[in-house]
Each structure stands twice: as structure tokens, then as C-alpha cells.
From TrEMBL:
Coiled coil: none annotated. Keywords: DNA-binding. It holds the Pfam family TetR_N. It comes from Phaeocystidibacter luteus. Residues 10-70 form the HTH tetR-type domain. This is TetR/AcrR family transcriptional regulator. Residues 33-52 bind DNA. GO terms for molecular function: DNA binding. Gene3D superfamilies: Homeodomain-like, Tetracycline Repressor, domain 2. InterPro entries: Homeodomain-like_sf, HTH-type_Tx_Regulator, HTH_TetR, Tet_transcr_reg_TetR-rel_C_sf. Signal peptide: none annotated.
Length: 217
């Protein structure tokens, strides 16, 4: 469904959706008006309303377009990884970069002011995270880097529950949640719980390489 949505957009429509997305990510959703969008994209409001009916419609289109892009990026990242542990390192790097480009209040604003869009996004995120976690666990077990006794279904649900808690500001303060190091700590915690002896040895090697490269930056 998302792929079809992205494929049928004409050039100007795509420009509007992508430009609006950049504005929302940078400044937050609530602070950007339709007048701001038209002015920043150098188009008339008449042109803007040719493609969207109101701001809620624009936000919905931007969220769905962004989710499609993120899904495509994740698929490429997963496809290029050498093993299950490398896959999670690549996903961690991708998510950290995405967080740097995102206004910290976006998720809160979506949930409070655009509940229908938030419900759609939450449902898709749940499916994506559970499926990716399950696939990663099965791959890691087959490759011998994860323990053979890992309960794939239980851990998939547990990982998603942790994801939800990480994005609940009543549980995790925003100052912590928006820190990329928090994501790294979460996925390292997860890996140490499921890794086999072989996997732990590989993980320690990867962490040493990562820490070394971080110190040099």
C-alpha cells in the first residue's frame, strides 16, 4: 500500500511532501502552518491545496511517505549485512542518524494532535519491529551467533515492549530517549542476552572497533 502511494505521486506532489517533511522534522509539526509550507516551498496555497485537503492530510501523507522511505532503507541495510549482529549494528547506525534529524517533540505531537495518523504509524511500526526482530533472531540462531534455546516469539514481543517503553516520556525522559547512545545501550543489552559464546566474541570485537572509531571522530 505504501509503495503504491509513493509510486503514483507526480514530481510536484513529491516535492511538496518531501519539503513539508523536512520542515516538520526540523521545526516540529505544531509550529509549522500551511502558510509556512507554501512560503518555504515557494508555491501558492492554491497549489498546495491541489494535493492536500488540510494540514492533517499533509501530516498524514508526510508520515506515510517517510515510513515507506525508512522501510526501504532498513530493507537495504538488512540485505547488506554479513550476519545478524552486523545487521543490528547497521540498524542502530541508521536509527541514530534518523534521530539526529528529527525534532524531539514530533512523536508527542503526532500522538496528541493527529491520533489517526499516530494509530496508523504505531501499527506499522509494531509489525515492522516484530517481524525484523523475529527474522534477525532466526538468522542469528542459524548462523550460530545467537543461542539455539532463544524463544523467538517471546523475545520479539519483549524487544517491541522495550521499544514502546523507550518512547514513552512518562517512563523515559526525553533528554535520555533522544540520545543516540540510549539506542546503542538498548540493542547491546539485547544482544548480550541472546548471543552465543561465538556471538559474544564477535560482539566484543565489533564494540571495540566501534569505540575506537568513535574516539577518533
Amino acid at each position: 500500500m505504501c509503495f503504491t502511494f509513493a509510486a503514483i505521486m507526480d514530481e510536484q506532489e513529491r516535492s511538496i511532501i518531501e519539503g513539508s517533511t523536512e520542515l516538520f522534522l526540523k521545526y516540529g509539526i505544531r509550529s509549522i502552518t500551511m502558510d509556512d509550507v507554501a512560503r518555504e516551498l515557494a508555491i501558492s496555497k492554491k497549489t498546495l491545496y491541489k494535493y492536500v485537503s488540510n494540514k492533517a492530510d499533509l501530516v498524514d501523507r508526510c508520515v506515510k511517505h517517510t515510513f515507506t522511505e525508512v522501510s526501504d532503507i532498513m530493507s537495504n541495510v538488512i540485505g547488506n549485512a554479513n550476519n545478524a549482529i552486523d545487521e543490528l549494528f547497521a540498524i542502530d547506525s541508521t536509527l541514530s542518524e534518523a534521530m539526529k534529524a528529527q525534532h524531539p517533540a514530533i512523536e508527542f505531537q503526532l500522538k496528541k494532535y493527529y491520533p489517526a495518523t499516530w494509530k496508523w504509524l504505531s501499527s506499522r511500526q509494531e509489525d515492522m519491529i516484530k517481524n525484523q526482530t523475529r527474522d534477525n533472531l532466526e538468522k542469528g540462531i542459524a548462523q550460530g551467533v545467537y543461542r539455539s534455546d532463544v524463544n523467538v516469539d517471546f523475545v520479539s514481543y519483549l524487544y517491541f515492549a522495550q521499544f514502546l517503553a523507550m518512547h514513552d516520556q512518562d517512563i523515559v525522559p526525553l533528554t535520555i530517549c533522544e540520545n543516540p547512545k540510549f539506542i546503542r545501550a538498548h540493542f547491546e543489552y539485547h544482544l548480550r542476552g541472546v548471543a552465543s559464546k561465538k556471538g559474544l566474541e564477535y560482539l566484543e570485537k565489533k564494540l571495540a572497533e566501534h569505540n575506537k572509531s568513535t574516539e577518533q571522530e
